């Protein structure tokens, strides 16, 4: 079950990051964060009401609040890094954040077996290669690298926090709702400050009409991201965090495949090799 839900997380995060990266080419990054997360709040709010999940409110929700504060910072840093540096460098670097939940798992006493350790090593190598680092291209700006590392450790922190925010399925719905409400609050405040400083909140040359046209895509990004958080929490609670975190962090493979299929970007040899290693690592982890 851990492997299944972790791989679902990988798929959802990969598609959400691809969609978010495409949207930020024509819509300000903060607006993408706020609008996409607002859609998730509405959907999760309805689920909380229907399942009466509010009855499970407790101290664990502070983990969800913390994840909600860190999440927008990580997403904004990631989207800005995508705008500054090549996706082939930004995407694999962002997955380095897996060291946070893996480290938490090790501190809590998890000790993967030899086969799983081998799988983790192979999968991490695949993650790095799957992004297709542009070794012969123009150097990545230092700011892009700094933003990517902020995003990486932010994503890793969210993974660690959200896995501790609930102990039941309905509790998870409430935790995800609280996380997204906090996301919108933090992101909205940042957007307000940004606009006050002169940055645009709406795309140039279209304004609200562009947002309206992109609403289905924005909704997909927000819902895929929240679903990924949910499936990761289930994976981490039902098996070793070290395994769940590494499998979930294979999302650069999905991003690369989506770019190849939808944007017709060529899959480089190094990306194909990385995807192959990631799949081998996945098999080893699942077998362990």
UniProtKB/TrEMBL annotation:
Q: Which superkingdom does the taxonomy of this entry point to?
A: Bacteria
A Pfam family it matches: EamA
What InterPro entries does its record include? Answer: EamA_dom, EmrE-like
Question: Which segments does the entry list as coiled coil?
Answer: none
Q: Is Transmembrane set as a keyword in this record?
A: yes
Keyword Cytoplasm applies:
no
Domain (EamA): give its ranges.
3-130, 144-285
**What does the UniProt keyword field contain?**
Membrane, Transmembrane, Transmembrane helix
Q: Where are the transmembrane segments?
A: 6-23, 30-54, 60-82, 89-108, 114-132, 144-163, 169-193, 205-223, 243-263, 270-287
* Annotated family: Belongs to the EamA transporter family.
Write down what this protein is called: DMT family transporter
């Amino acid at each position: 079950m851990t492997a299944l839900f972790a791989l679902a997380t990988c798929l959802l995060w990969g598609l959400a990051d691809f969609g978010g990266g495409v949207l930020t080419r024509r819509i300000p990054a903060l607006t993408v964060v706020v609008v996409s997360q607002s859609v998730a709040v509405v959907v999760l709010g309805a689920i909380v009401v229907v399942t009466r999940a509010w009855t499970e409110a407790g101290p664990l929700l502070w983990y969800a609040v913390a994840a909600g504060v860190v999440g927008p910072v990580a997403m904004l840093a990631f989207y800005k890094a995508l705008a500054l540096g090549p996706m082939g460098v930004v995407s694999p670097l962002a997955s380095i954040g897996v060291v946070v939940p893996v480290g938490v798992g090790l501190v809590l006493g998890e000790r993967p077996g030899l086969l799983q350790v081998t799988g983790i090593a192979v999968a991490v190598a695949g993650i790095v290669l799957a992004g297709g680092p542009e070794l012969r291209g123009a150097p990545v700006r230092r700011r892009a690298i700094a933003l990517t590392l902020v995003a990486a450790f932010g994503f890793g922190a969210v993974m660690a926090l959200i896995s501790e925010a609930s102990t039941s399925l309905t509790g998870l719905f409430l935790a995800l709702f609280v996380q997204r409400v906090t996301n919108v609050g933090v992101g909205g405040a940042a957007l307000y400050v940004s606009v006050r400083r002169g940055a645009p909140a709406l795309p140039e040359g279209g304004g609200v009409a562009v947002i309206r046209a992109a609403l289905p895509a924005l909704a997909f990004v927000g819902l895929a991201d929240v679903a990924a958080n949910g499936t990761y929490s289930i994976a981490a609670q039902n098996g070793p965090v070290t395994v769940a975190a590494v499998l979930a962090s294979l999302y650069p493979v999905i991003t690369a495949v989506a770019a190849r299929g939808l944007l017709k970007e060529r899959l480089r040899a190094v990306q194909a090799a990385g995807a192959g290693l990631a799949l081998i690592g996945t098999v080893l982890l699942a077998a362990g």
